[in-house]
């Protein structure tokens, strides 16, 4: 008995030392000892281990960080193991890392299984004794999300090991080399273990489940509609293209057609050139209507996620308000400048920030110089311009003057920054690390770098390209704030949601890249123009997979399994990938509402001029009532004009088909004469009755005002070429008859009289002029920067993805040429994907 008590005291002292080493407070130790009863020592050790593994102690936190590092190292090792060309020792090192990692994760799993009895989330109590049921608690833990992830991260290793042993035994000990790549990719599930680092990530993952529960009925209905549209269009495409030899059997069944139909519903048309007439009609219908119907499912999910993000943001703002804390972001806001009249520093501050008349002139001169610099750089990137010495001298002189002005501007801004108390004195060092001062510094740094003769290995193209950063200086002149600053605020406010969705996107990216590598690495149809393979390794597969996840399908000749995976990416992953973009867009819209609001819309509507549609009197008044549709006969006349607009568009479209033009040329010419005659009559009547039009009534020279109005010019442009060719057959206008005939399509704009659309768009532009100017400027900046980056990286690319003799280097030989292809990419389309690394 004394010996047993002595061992118990020693064991208890050991446990208490372990608890103190793990960082567990003594009160928790004592409380757990009391609950443990006679087995208090073991229970306390188990509880200490549970806290340690969950990272809730100082040493446990280090353990968690080390585990995360090992997981990331494992994922990188697995991805790089699929790349060929390294030394054998490299692959041996990866295998050794895998052996050590599996041993570590196995021990960790066993310890988590043992200590899960103290996991409050899975605790099971016996109904008869009201005591802890350890076995059932552990069983409950085994079915949890993280436990399944843990077992999936080590199971492939043992599966391969035991499969190898079984195969050797079956072959009587003979050496048999087997490869089980189908289970190797499961190792990437270890990446999900990173979420243990912070519990909010798992909490955010439950948002998907909440959205499903809240929107379940709507998701099922929209999913059913989308599936029905998919099946119907698959059958239609099969019917239209089943006998088309250009398809090479790709639509010989509804099952085969379903993949390409799914691509069409994503907005991608990989076989558009091979389609027949009926197939093209179906493709047009798909692009115009069906894509919107099919996108409802993703829209519901994305909208619900954004609503959740808005609620979380409101909760965070409410909590911050209750706590009297404006957030960390306020710490980065500048204080109001202290300006003193007559003081030089205050005067300089007003000038460089455009706060006085001289400052207004200063800002405009700087903007003009920035535009001139960017234009000069783009123009000078062309080979024939660079070879022209006279032009080069002018561009060099512009560069010298610009650097001088920008250097003086930087010094003045640094001097004037002292008007803010936090930047006074040595505080200017803090000012120099802010966004816009760094942009100002980058605007002049390339000039001085290229002037240093001690750096002979500098890539001058790269240094010259840095001059484009000067365009970012222009953003500082937006009085409402720069776009990048606004986006920074939006990202900060939605950091939790963006972190989770970004993490999910990375997991999905690696996951699907691994699967597509395993499924398509032996597919000969996936060869690149230079003889390589798009899916030869996981790193190589990550580029086309990223395009798939963004909704692009530049490659479509997959295996059956690859098509299934590509379809899953389109249905599920695209919605998740689009959430961050939607959140940023929604945040920018909220910012615009806060800045410019719509509170004055009601007043604007009341003050808007109301067009008087009363009947006109007099002889010409009756004519005006007729052409404006203000009486019974005029109503029929307006209907006739409505349909004649479509008739002229139909006639113009049919005339572009040689066979139909040859067969129905007489009828088409007759239709054209009738339409021109009626539109000419309409124009003359409107000109004669212009003084009755409320827009010109009571004003001087109403007929001249109408003559130069928008609809008058539109009418002249659409009918004048016809009469000109009658008067001067074979003349200049007749020589360009086909091009001038296209002007008749402008009659579609006359539809705005009946269905207001152009005027509504004009109102939208006017009401959102500042926001559109800001976003347009930012889009132009991105366009110019990415065009320059592609010019730098692809001008030596010799791959010819279209087999027509035009290499990637030709497409990106200079910045102006690169801008057209870059604009296509910025619009979300990637018809070319054979880029350098």
Shape: globular
Main beta sheet strand tally, sense and closure: none
Strand content: under 5%
* Number of beta strands: 0
Poorly predicted runs of 5 or more residues = 18-39, 172-182, 599-612
Structural class estimated from helices and strands:
mainly alpha
Spatial separation of the terminal alpha carbons: 74 Å
Radius of gyration: 36 Å
Number of helices: 36
List keywords for this structure.
globular; 837 residues; 68% helix; mainly alpha
Report on this model:
The chain is mainly alpha-helical and 837 residues long. The chain has 36 helices and no strands. It has helices at residues 2-22, 26-36, 40-53, 58-81, 88-115, 134-142, 145-170, 181-184, 199-214, 216-241, 254-265, 277-294, 296-322, 344-352, 357-380, 383-386, 389-416, 428-432, 435-450, 460-465, 483-493, 495-520, 538-549, 560-596, 601-607, 619-627, 632-655, 658-688, 702-707, 710-727, 732-735, 737-741, 758-767, 769-794, 808-811, 815-826. Helix 22 (495-520) crosses helix 23 (538-549). The longest helix is centred in the last third of the chain and has 37 residues, at 560-596. The chain is globular, with a radius of gyration of 36 Å. The relative contact order is 0.05. The model is unreliable at 18-39, 172-182 and 599-612 (pLDDT under 50).
């Amino acid at each position: 008995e004394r010996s047993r008590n002595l061992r118990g005291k020693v064991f208890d002292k050991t446990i208490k030392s372990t608890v103190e080493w793990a960082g567990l407070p003594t009160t928790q130790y004592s409380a757990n000892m009391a609950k443990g009863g006679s087995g208090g020592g073991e229970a306390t050790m188990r509880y200490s281990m549970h806290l340690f593994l969950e990272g809730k102690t100082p040493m446990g936190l280090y353990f968690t960080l080390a585990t995360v590092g090992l997981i990331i190292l494992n994922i990188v090792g697995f991805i790089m193991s699929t790349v060929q060309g390294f030394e054998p020792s490299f692959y041996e090192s990866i295998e050794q890392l895998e052996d050590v990692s599996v041993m570590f994760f196995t021990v960790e799993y066993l310890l988590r299984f043992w200590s899960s009895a103290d996991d409050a989330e899975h605790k099971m109590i016996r109904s008869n004794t009201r005591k802890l049921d350890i076995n059932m608690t552990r069983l409950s833990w085994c079915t949890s999300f993280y436990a399944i992830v843990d077992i999936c991260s080590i199971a492939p290793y043992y599966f391969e090991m035991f499969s190898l042993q079984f195969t050797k035994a079956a072959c009587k000990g003979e050496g048999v080399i087997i490869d089980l790549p189908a289970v190797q990719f499961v190792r990437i599930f270890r990446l999900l273990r990173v979420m243990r680092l912070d519990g909010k990530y798992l909490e955010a993952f439950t948002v998907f489940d909440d959205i499903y529960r809240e929107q379940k009925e709507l998701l099922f209905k929209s999913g059913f509609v989308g599936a029905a549209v998919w099946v119907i269009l698959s059958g239609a495409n099969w019917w239209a293209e089943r006998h088309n030899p250009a398809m090479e059997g790709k639509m010989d069944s509804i099952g085969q057609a379903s993949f390409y139909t799914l691509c069409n519903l994503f907005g991608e048309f990989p076989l558009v050139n091979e389609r027949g007439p009926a197939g093209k009609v179906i493709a047009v219908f798909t692009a115009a209507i069906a894509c919107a119907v099919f996108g409802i499912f993703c829209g519901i999910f994305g909208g619900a996620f954004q609503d959740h993000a808005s609620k979380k943001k409101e909760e965070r703002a409410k909590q911050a308000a209750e706590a009297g804390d404006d957030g960390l972001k306020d710490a980065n806001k500048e204080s109001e400048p202290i300006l003193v009249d007559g003081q030089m520093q205050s005067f300089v501050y007003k000038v460089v920030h455009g706060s006085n008349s001289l400052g207004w002139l200063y800002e405009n001169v700087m903007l003009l110089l920035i535009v001139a610099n960017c234009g000069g750089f783009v123009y000078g990137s062309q080979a024939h311009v660079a070879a022209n010495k006279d032009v080069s001298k002018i561009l060099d002189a512009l560069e010298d003057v610009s650097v001088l002005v920008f250097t003086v501007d930087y010094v003045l801004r640094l001097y004037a920054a002292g008007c803010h108390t936090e930047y006074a004195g040595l505080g200017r060092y803090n000012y120099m690390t802010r966004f816009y001062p760094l942009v100002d510094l980058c605007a002049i740094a390339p000039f001085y770098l290229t002037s240093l003769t001690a750096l002979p290995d500098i890539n001058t193209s790269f240094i010259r390209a840095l001059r484009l950063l000067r365009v970012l200086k222009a953003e500082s002149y937006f009085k409402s704030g720069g776009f990048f600053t606004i986006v920074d605020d939006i990202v900060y406010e939605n950091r939790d949601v963006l972190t989770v969705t970004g993490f999910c996107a990375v997991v999905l990216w690696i996951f699907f890249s691994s699967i597509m590598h395993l499924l398509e690495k032996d597919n000969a149809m996936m060869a690149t123009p230079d003889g390589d393979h798009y899916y030869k390794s996981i790193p190589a597969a990550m580029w086309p997979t990223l395009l798939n996840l963004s909704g692009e399908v530049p490659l479509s000749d997959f295996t059956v399994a690859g098509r299934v995976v590509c379809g899953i990416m389109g249905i599920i992953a695209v919605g998740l990938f689009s959430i961050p973009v939607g959140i940023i867009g929604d945040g920018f819209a909220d910012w615009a509402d806060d800045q410019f609001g719509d509170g004055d819309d009601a007043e604007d509507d009341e003050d808007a001029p109301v067009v008087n549609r009363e009947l006109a009197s007099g002889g010409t008044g009756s004519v005006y009532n007729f052409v404006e549709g203000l009486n019974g006969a005029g109503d029929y006349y307006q209907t006739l004009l409505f349909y004649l607009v479509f008739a002229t568009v139909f006639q113009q479209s049919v005339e572009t088909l040689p066979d139909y033009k040859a067969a129905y040329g007489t009828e088409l010419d007759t239709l054209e004469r009738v339409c021109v005659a009626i539109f000419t009559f309409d124009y003359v009547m409107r000109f004669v009755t212009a003084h009755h039009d409320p827009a010109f009534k009571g004003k001087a020279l109403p007929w001249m005002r109408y003559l130069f109005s928008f609809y008058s010019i539109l009418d002249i442009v659409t009918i004048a070429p016809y009469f000109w060719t009658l008067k001067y057959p074979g003349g200049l206008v007749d020589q360009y008859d086909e091009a001038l005939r296209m002007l008749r399509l402008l009659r579609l704009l006359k539809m705005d009289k009946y269905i207001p659309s152009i005027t509504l768009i004009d109102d939208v532009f006017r009401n959102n002029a500042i926001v559109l100017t800001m976003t347009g400027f930012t889009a132009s900046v991105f366009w110019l920067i990415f065009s320059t980056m592609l010019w730098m990286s692809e001008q030596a690319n010799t791959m010819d993805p279209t087999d027509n003799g035009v290499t990637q280097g030709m497409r990106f030989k200079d910045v102006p040429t690169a801008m057209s292809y870059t604009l296509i990419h910025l619009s979300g389309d990637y018809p070319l994907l054979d880029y350098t690394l």
